Amino acid sequence: MNVLALYKKSRPYSSYVIFGVLLALAPLMVNLGVLRFFHLTLIAGVVIYAIVALGLNLLMGYAGLVSLGTAAFMGVGAYLTAFFTQDLGMDFLPSIVLTVVITSILGILVGLLSLRVEGFFLAMATLAVAEILRQVFIEFTGFTNSFVGRTANFPEFFGFTMNRNQTFILLVVFLVLAMFVTQSFANSYTGRALSAMRGSEAAASAMGINIFKYRLIAFSVSTAYAGLGGALYMHFIRFTFPNVWMFTLSLMLFAVVVIGGVRSVAGTVVGAFVVFGVPDLILVNIPVIGDINGMAFVFTGVLIIVVVMYYPAGLIYIWHDIKVLVHKVRGRGKV
Amino acid sequence: MSIFIQILFNSLETGSILALATMGIILIFRTSKAFNYAQGAISMFCAFIAAYFMANTGANVFISTIVGVLGAVGVGVIIDRVVIKRMIKLHSVSKQIVTLGLVIVFLGLAPMFFGNIPYTYRRFAQGTHSIFGATITYSAMVNIAIGIAIMVALFFVIQKTKWGLAVRATASNDVVARMMGIPTSIVTMGAWAVAAALGSLAAMMVAPTTTVNFVMMDSIQITALLACVLGGLGTFFGPVFAAYLIALARNLISFYISSVWADAIVYLLILGILLISPNGIFGKKLVKKV
């Protein structure tokens, strides 16, 4: 195994850039007529949820802590950025920085729960937090406009307003950045400390890792990703109301991580595409089946079940299995 | 005084509905080691079966309810045989994701079979009665009676019969239970069937107050999950007690403090209790081995 291959395996940054460039071609495809107008919204959704799921993967995969409040944290991010840009008239960049900072502080507060409560109990505690936040979204009408909904604009920098295609490219840039950060975070001291903690807390603390500190870090980073995702959602979709940020969305994000592959950056993006992209992008285009009421839901559900049953480690490993199969067919034995 | 009795009866009614849903979730949790996020969706689907039957045959509410419950038993058995039985060896997180997949499947199946229009569902009984100045509907009394009767019957079965022993043995350690000759696969199947039946019964009690629609069980599902952790996952009794407690707390808070924030305050209280006793009210401390 040469050094270059090993380096590429642990730091596949160049592949991320290539992926980002390819994804950024989507608006061009729309202009050329290959993709339709609404496809761009769908792909943007996949990009946004992939960013959020990357944060959740850090929390679940590396730290081994489960959160079911992700959707509500996204909602907080969305409403905060709407407040900063619409009510206070701030620019996009300072607004997004402030949003991320505030949501990560919220993450630390929620993380305090994890110091006492563990496992299934922690998952349900975060669910309770999410339901309280949703009640806040509904009732604080001055801030959230309740069920009427809150609107925002495309991002504005120094008096220049982006259009829809430029905003999409901005989303892709954020996704690639998030992939970079997640990969380096996982390889960093903190990431390895989290992995050690997941394996055995007693052993980790015996090695001098401060469990409480790293749990709080994991929660705050994960919530910051959710806040960023929510803010980007707000600036691309430009409309939100409380029922967007429901428990089901948290569960879907949870599914993204498990389906794509726990502790895999590329896997998370694949998972986001399978859960949020496949039903609407591919399924509705198939004749007859696409017209049946509720078929997209059934398909997504069955897909989730089948993937979890046959690929419990994550869909990202399907590539490895295909390679093994090809080698077997050619009679070269194992990879 | 009459107001307090009114609140007490209302709490008993919502508590009974919540307790049925909670009992379903804890039954599956103890035998399959996974939270069943699909409980609400399955109940919703079975309530649709009952309402569809009622609308198309004009049958009375009891027959429709029996049809709905039988449908639920069938759905529970099918889910267990087709999905759950094949994933005994999976990690419990993966199992929970599978139940999430089931939620989405049922959300798609319901409009496929029954269309997008909500159905109405009649009450079990009409009319009201007055006790100590509090007005109680007969249907509330029926709900309370059904809820308590089923709880008592289930606890009797679980604690006193041979099948109950099999359930408890499976819950405590399914590998050893299988070695001792307990048919754990049938126990798990029974747990899914009973859980689906309990959940759909709860759904058919909720249905007259709203309509039979796709989101009718969402809030009950979330509250039932919280009742499970509040009561502690180690017993069958704890979560059911917690369900009645949550219903009482919510009604008291919404009358005396704020009706808008009642849910949020109850959730905050649950968080507070979990912080004080991290394994729920009746939970036992898990000893971790290093």
Strand order of the largest sheet of chain B: 1-2
- Give the CA-based shape of chain A: globular
Q: Largest beta sheet of chain A: what is the strand line-up?
A: 1-4
Distance between the termini of chain A: 13 Å
**Mind telling me the C-alpha Rg of chain A?**
20 Å
The CA-CA distance between the termini of chain B, in Å, is 55 Å
The count of DSSP E runs of length 2 or more, i.e. the number of strands of chain A, is: 4
Helix and strand string of chain B, N-terminal first? HHHHEEHHHHHHH
Percent helix of chain B = over 70%
The number of strands of chain B is 2
The number of distinct structural domains of chain A comes to 1
Estimate the helix proportion of chain A, in percent.
Answer: over 70%
Q: Beta fraction of the residues of chain A?
A: under 5%
Low-pLDDT segments, ≥5 res of chain A: none
Instruction: Please tell me how large the radius of gyration of chain B is.
Output: 19 Å
Total domain units of chain B: 1
- Envelope shape of chain B: globular
Query: How many DSSP helices of chain A?
Result: 16
User: What is the average per-residue confidence, as pLDDT of chain A, rounded to a whole number?
Assistant: 87
Order of helices and strands of chain A: HHHHHHHHEEEHHHHEHHHH
- Describe the largest sheet of chain B: 2 strands, antiparallel
Task: Provide keyphrases for this structure.
A: mainly alpha, two-stranded antiparallel ribbon, two-stranded antiparallel sheet, 16 helices, 2% strand, B: 290 residues, mainly alpha, 71% helix, globular
Question: What would you note in describing this structure?
Answer:
The complex is a heterodimer of chains A (335) and B (290). Chain A is mostly helical and 335 residues long. Chain A is globular, with a radius of gyration of 20 Å. Chain A has helices at residues 3-10, 13-23, 26-32, 37-62, 70-87, 92-114, 119-139, 141-144, 164-187, 189-199, 201-206, 211-237, 247-260, 265-281, 295-310, 318-330, and strands spanning 150-151, 156-157, 160-161, 239-240. The model of chain A has no long low-confidence stretch (mean pLDDT 87). Chain A has one domain. Chain B has a two-stranded antiparallel ribbon. The model of chain B has no long low-confidence stretch (mean pLDDT 89). Chain B has helices spanning 2-32, 39-57, 61-82, 92-114, 138-160, 162-172, 174-179, 184-206, 218-231, 237-256, 262-276; strands at 128-131, 134-137. The radius of gyration of chain B is 19 Å and the shape is globular. In chain B, strand 1 (128-131) and strand 2 form a beta hairpin. Chain B has 290 residues and is mainly α. Chain B has one domain (2-216). The longest helix of chain B is centred in the N-terminal third of the chain and has 31 residues, at 2-32. In chain B, helix 1 (2-32) crosses helix 6, helix 2 (39-57) packs across helix 8 (184-206) and helix 9 (218-231) crosses helix 10. Chains A and B meet through helix 7, helix 13 and helix 15 of A and helix 4, helix 9 and helix 11 of B.
